[in-house]
Amino acid sequence: MIGAVEVGLIYGVMALGVYLTFRVLNFPDLTVDGSFTTGAATAAVAIIAGWNPVLATLAGFVTGFLAGTVTGLLHTKGKIDGLLAGILTMIALWSINLRIMDGANVPLLRRDTAFTPLRDAGILGTWGGVAVLALAVVLLGLVVVWFLTTDLGLSIRATGDNGPMISSFGVSTDFTKTLTLALSNGFVGMCGALIAQYQGFADISMGIGLILVGLASVILGQAILGQRRLLLAVFAVIVGAVLYRLIIFAALRVGLDPNDMKAITALLVVIALLVPRWKAVGGRVGRRSTATSVAATSAKEA
């Protein structure tokens, strides 16, 4: 269970990136499936080349940032549909990732990683390790909240809410969209770099279906904690990433086949999307029933 929480916290970095595009920008970005592996591959190759793990992780952020920039430029300057732009970049990244790793897999056994100090101290795999990771992810979440409250961040939020309106005030929506996609995939690439170091290898297929995991984290967390306030919405995403990993952990513990995990993830997303609608429908039905009862009572009294 502790391992599931640790992995969930690390995936919280990726969920923050998905939140920026899915919720803030209202952009369906599929680049995530490729940029995650790009970040992992970059960090793994850099560590093998002797780089400091922290610099290797930052390199994963940079390559993810560049991947998001490409998607943004294809969409804004190339006038390609956002969904298609993400798919095109994702497909291209498959070949690029193979080039980076010079193969399908890069092992990091007996290599120093960002988690080596925690392992050497005997903290990783304990609640102390969870506390350290939680602190790091919370600090990153606070940075995201701060950024979204700056003038640039408010412009990005306005672009997602009403692009034509904010462009009428002189804001370049092409720039805000491209920057948001770049930052989002930067976080995803950094998450990939951390996951590769945590599990001890980078693999070409590790990013397949990751967008669904990100959406599940965002939707689950915000369905439970809400999203009316920015601070709550951001941290709900991190909570959602942990909850998702705990649900997968529980599903495996009860004996479900690991091959069914993608279907379970899809089912979680569907349920999380439908529950608010069911509540809304139930609320309308309840109000109609109340109104009908009041009208009937008034008619009897008359």
Describe the protein in words.
The protein is an all-alpha fold and 302 residues long. The chain has helices at 2-24, 32-48, 53-76, 82-101, 116-120, 127-148, 151-167, 173-199, 210-225, 230-253, 261-301; strands spanning 105-107, 201-203. It is 78% helix and 2% strand. Helix 6 (127-148) packs antiparallel against helix 10 and helix 7 (151-167) crosses helix 8. The chain has one domain (2-288): ABC transporter involved in vitamin B12 uptake, BtuC. Strands 1-2 form a two-stranded antiparallel ribbon. The protein is globular and about 55 Å long. The mean pLDDT is 86.
Per-chain topology:
Blueprint lengths: L1 H23 L7 H17 L4 H24 L5 H20 L3 E3 L8 H5 L6 H22 L2 H17 L5 H27 L1 E3 L6 H16 L4 H24 L7 H41 L1
Antiparallel strand pairs: 1-2
Helix pairs in contact: 1-6, 1-8, 1-9, 1-10, 2-3, 2-4, 2-8, 3-4, 3-8, 6-10, 7-8, 9-10, 9-11
Number of strands: 2
Amount of beta strand: under 5%
* CATH level-two architecture: Orthogonal Bundle
Radius of gyration: 22 Å
Low-confidence spans = none
Q: What's the story with the biggest beta sheet?
A: 2 strands, antiparallel
Task: From the 3D structure, determine the CATH topology.
Answer: ABC transporter involved in vitamin B12 uptake, BtuC
